[in-house]
Amino acid sequence: MPVRTKICGVTTNAAMDAAIAGGAAWIGFVFCAPSPRNIDSQAAAALIARAPNHVGKVGVFVDAEDGAIAAAVAAGLTAIQLHGKESPEQAASLGRRYGIEVWKAAPVRTRDDLALVTRYRGAADRILYDAKAPADAVIPGGQGLRFDWRLLEGFDHPLPWLLSGGLDAGNLREAIGITGAPAVDVSSGVESAPGIKDVDKIAAFLKAAAQ
Ligand SMILES: O=C(O)c1ccccc1N[C@@H]1O[C@H](COP(=O)(O)O)[C@@H](O)[C@H]1O
């Protein structure tokens, strides 16, 4: 089964086109002001217009206000990724309101952190395992941090899931080999500097995923 990929934090036509050409299943747009990848709804709509229907368009939010999510969904999102402290009830409510997939990011440092995900069964459509950010971090993701992938070995996943956190073209096969990830998500691992996507790194990542 081929591994599905999400290229996250896209802000330019070049990165968008590289992700599409390389076969990304999803492209992510970050609606989070402190992020170097922050984008507004108008700019996201212009990028989304470049993508064919089969490519999913995922908006990343961190404890966002309803109005911000509504504006971004109207730009053409096909999924909402919740990367903050959103509850199962909030996730379910957003799914009902917008009729699109809701993904919940699960911050992982220890095996105990995995217990959180079962609460989202029936409330979210997918879980995205990401490294838990330090307590003083300004943003909870997109910093190239990994967690111990062996924590997912033998774990009974309650929902369809993606692996993220510190992935790049060089470590992707090892990460998939250990975790059995059916889908992966990357941001800083395909950048030359925070927020600056590198089209060659995007191509290399997508090639590694397709092997
Ligand atoms: O990318 C961001 O700037 C971001 C901001 C706020 C919440 C989540 C964010 N990104 C997500 O984090 C994962 C992991 O990133 P990385 O590959 O370790 O840099 C990324 O895939 C996004 O889904």
Give a written overview of the molecule.
By secondary structure, the protein is α/β, with parallel strands linked by helices. It has one domain (4-209): TIM Barrel (Alpha-Beta Barrel), CATH 3.20.20.70. The protein is built from six helices and ten strands, in the order E-H-E-H-E-H-E-H-E-E-E-H-E-E-E-H. The chain has helices at residues 13-22, 41-48, 66-74, 88-98, 172-179, 199-210, and strands at 4-7, 26-31, 56-61, 79-82, 101-108, 126-131, 161-164, 183-186, 191-193, 196-197. The strands form two sheets. It has an eight-stranded parallel beta barrel, surrounded by six helices. Helix 1 (13-22) packs parallel to helix 6 and helix 2 (41-48) packs parallel to helix 3 (66-74). The radius of gyration is 16 Å and the shape is globular. Bound molecules: the ligand O=C(O)c1ccccc1N[C@@H]1O[C@H](COP(=O)(O)O)[C@@H](O)[C@H]1O. It comes from Sphingomonas vulcanisoli. InterPro entries: Aldolase_TIM, PRAI_dom, RibuloseP-bd_barrel, TrpF_fam. It catalyses: N-(5-phospho-beta-D-ribosyl)anthranilate = 1-(2-carboxyphenylamino)-1-deoxy-D-ribulose 5-phosphate.
Helices and strands in order, then pairings?
Layout: E1 4-7, H1 13-22, E2 26-31, H2 41-48, E3 56-61, H3 66-74, E4 79-82, H4 88-98, E5 101-108, E6 126-131, E7 161-164, H5 172-179, E8 183-186, E9 191-193, E10 196-197, H6 199-210
Parallel strand pairs: 1-2, 1-8, 2-3, 3-4, 4-5, 5-6, 6-7, 7-8
Antiparallel strand pairs: 9-10
Summarize this entry quickly.
This protein is an alpha/beta fold and 211 residues long. Helix content is 27%, strand content 22%. The chain is globular.
